[in-house]
Write a structure and sequence with these properties.
This protein is an alpha+beta fold. The protein contains five helices and 18 strands.
Length: about 270
């Protein structure tokens, strides 16, 4: 299937199975277009010729629509539509597909963004061999993964260049996030034996990996990390080009003068009075 055929298939399945579940025709059209695009752009071909579709789908929705998107039927049906579309296109999945939801207050009610990635490996086995206390790993081999980064809420790339990365609302965190859902000291990434391990620091809203709550987990490229609903996608090597994310750009290099990258929700400028 080419892109147009994938869009047509998704459109027919949504019209058949979701009918009035989505807000407005504009939202439906955007889902069809963006879902088809991320499936097409993120499908990889193995040396044996088998084409593998991405299995992690992150829907970035307007805050006003969160109640509607929390309906299990909506997410389950969209997941099944993704499975059916991939099957009809001759694509395979290495892991079962699933959907995660995050919100963006800057989006209008009928707007939406969709990201897709590959869950490379189930990290539970490695996690079980890692201490739940990050301080107990301080004497471990802290060799860092090469060219690791986080894609934050689909719009910013944060390079991971230190063996320990603290994440939270406090300004002295390595990655400070000005979002009320994130705890002051929410999570920590620690490089252990060439991989980053994420530890939840007893946060209020919890830390989730690919939709499952965790206190610790080894990260693999394509893993979706949710900090109480704030979505980070972990990757390595060079971030893939994403024409649908025109504003995606790397943060400035970290330095001793500016050790903290701060994310803030920006508000539109106030119109000047005539």
């Amino acid at each position: 299937m080419n892109l147009e055929e994938i869009e047509t298939r998704i459109q027919s399945l949504i019209e058949l199975r979701l009918a009035d579940a989505l807000i407005g025709r504009n939202t439906e059209g955007l889902i069809v277009q963006k879902l088809a695009t991320v499936i097409k752009e993120n499908t990889i071909t193995k040396p044996n010729g088998v084409r593998i579709a991405p299995n992690v789908y992150t829907f970035i929705i307007p805050s006003a629509a969160v109640e509607q998107w929390q309906e299990p039927h909506l997410q389950e049906t969209l997941t099944d539509i993704i499975k059916t579309t991939a099957q009809d296109a001759g694509l395979k999945f290495e892991f079962p597909p699933f959907i995660t939801i995050t919100t963006d207050a800057s989006l209008s009610l009928d707007d939406i963004n969709v990201l897709a990635s590959h869950q490379v490996k189930n990290s539970m086995e490695d996690t079980q061999n890692t201490s739940a206390d990050p301080e107990e790993n301080s004497m471990e081999d802290n060799t860092m993964p090469e060219n690791a980064f986080l894609i934050i809420e689909g719009v910013k790339v944060f390079p991971l260049r230190t063996p320990v990365v603290n994440i939270g609302r406090r300004l002295d965190n390595t990655l400070a996030m000005d979002d009320p859902r994130v705890s002051r000291n929410h999570a920590q990434l620690r490089a252990i034996k060439g991989r980053y391990v994420i530890f939840d620091l007893n946060s209020t809203g919890g830390t989730f990996i690919n939709g499952q709550r965790t206190s610790q987990s080894v990260l693999y490229p394509g893993d979706v990390v949710s900090l109480a609903g704030v979505v980070l996608i972990y990757g390595q090597d060079n971030p893939p080009p994403r024409p649908d994310l025109a504003t995606t750009s790397p943060f400035d290099s970290l330095s001793s003068e500016r050790p903290t990258a701060i994310l803030r929700k920006t508000m539109p400028p106030t119109p000047k009075k005539e």
